[in-house]
Amino acid sequence: MNTSCSAQCKVSKSWRSLCLDGQLWSTVDLTPFATVLHPATFTRIVKTTAPFITSLSVRGMDALHGTVLLDSLGQAKLPRLTAIDLRGCKRVSESQLIDLINLAPSLRILNLKGVQSTTAAVLRSVADTCLQLESLDVSRCWDISLADLAVFLHRLTPEQAGRYKVLRLAGLKAYGPTASDLLPTIAATMPLLHTLDLGGCTRIRDEDWGRWRKVYDAKESASSLEHLNISGCTELTTKTLEHLTDMVPLLRLFEMASVPEMFRHAADNQHAHEPLEELLRSVPLLEKLDLEGTGHYGGINDRVLRALIPTLRGQGRTATAQQQGGRLREIRLGFAKHVLAAELIHLIRGLEHLKVLEVDVSGICVFTSILPMSHCPPVHPLLTAEHDGQRRGHARVSSSPTRTFRLDLAGRLPCRISRGLL
């Protein structure tokens, strides 16, 4: 939606007629006006432009009634409509949601995150109607479970499943006997899937990932996943990390926050960190890593950090940098009691593309004259004791009340890292 067009509509009727020309409104994003847009204005905009809309976002319009939305879109099919974002729409019923889906058979992107009218019947409608769907988000929809998603996947034709690139299921529970079929079905039917969000799915187990891996082993191939979120999957152990190792070579974003129980016995087992270390070594394209809240029991240590630092292979002029870790731009470690300050320095120096490092340094002394100025290379930051809250160069550190430090290394220039709030 062009915000200038909405303002110009108030000038005169002629201006309104020109500004509501459907050809100017192929993308209708009403999110900036979610709290102030009058239903009559919404109806006028959508009814006038409906035949031309390719993308419709009513995110945050929690007061929008489903009847108003359907009346505005009309009864005719909308073959141009390829993306719908309904996040925050609380007054759209199950039947109205199904009617809306039936109006848009050409949908490629459907975002129903937090829409509590999403049910198994809605999923059936999506499977039967949206034959070209590529991205589905049903996170935080409490009336469906992972078992319903497994049934949904079985309902898709091979051609439909083969189109999916994004699947977001964060927060869903795993009620029902078919829930354990979800991951192996994804592996078997979705070769192009690059984003899988299972954050907060507390019933996902190691056995599910084991069956997922067996599918790829049988095909002698690997997953196409580029973004995987298993944060908050509290029943997972390091066995899952073993199942993932060598299976996600294209991974760029990996989120494994808030799973401290995975390493509960790390203090008694000196090899507890090895599955994570091996997994990180097997993802050469990794750009963002989130381990916030996972290292409480010692699963994140110096050897894990070393696994992120590129090393050299070969000799002389033929030596090339091993890509593993070389693309990392953002790392969130959280509680890092078992990480030595010198290893943090080594990590920063070894990752030339690193822009942000967030670490809770409670219990360790990071800011105590770690290295003298003469030892700092000219293009790398220096961490020294500095408590005056100043910012110097292009590196910054922020400290929260829990002593979580955020290093913004965008400039990569020599500087002092100081404690303060961004």
Description:
The protein is α/β, with parallel strands linked by helices. The protein has 14 helices and 16 strands. The strands form two sheets. It has a 14-stranded mixed β-sheet with strand order 1-2-3-4-5-6-7-8-9-10-13-14-16-15, with no helix packed on it. Helix 9 (182-189) packs parallel to helix 10 (206-219) and helix 11 (238-244) packs parallel to helix 12. It is globular. Residues 312-322, 363-405 and 410-422 have low confidence and may be disordered.
Secondary structure blueprint with pairings:
Layout: H1 3-8, H2 13-19, E1 27-29, H3 39-49, E2 55-57, H4 66-73, E3 83-85, H5 94-103, E4 109-111, H6 120-129, E5 135-137, H7 146-155, H8 158-161, E6 166-168, H9 182-189, E7 195-197, H10 206-219, E8 227-229, H11 238-244, E9 253-255, H12 274-281, E10 288-290, H13 302-306, E11 312-313, E12 320-321, E13 330-335, H14 341-350, E14 356-360, E15 396-399, E16 404-408
Parallel strand pairs: 1-2, 2-3, 3-4, 4-5, 5-6, 6-7, 7-8, 8-9, 9-10, 10-13, 13-14
Antiparallel strand pairs: 11-12, 14-16, 15-16
Helix pairs in contact: 3-4, 5-6, 6-7, 7-9, 9-10, 10-11, 11-12
Task: Output the keywords.
422 residues; 14-stranded mixed beta sheet; single chain; 16 strands; disordered C terminus; alpha/beta
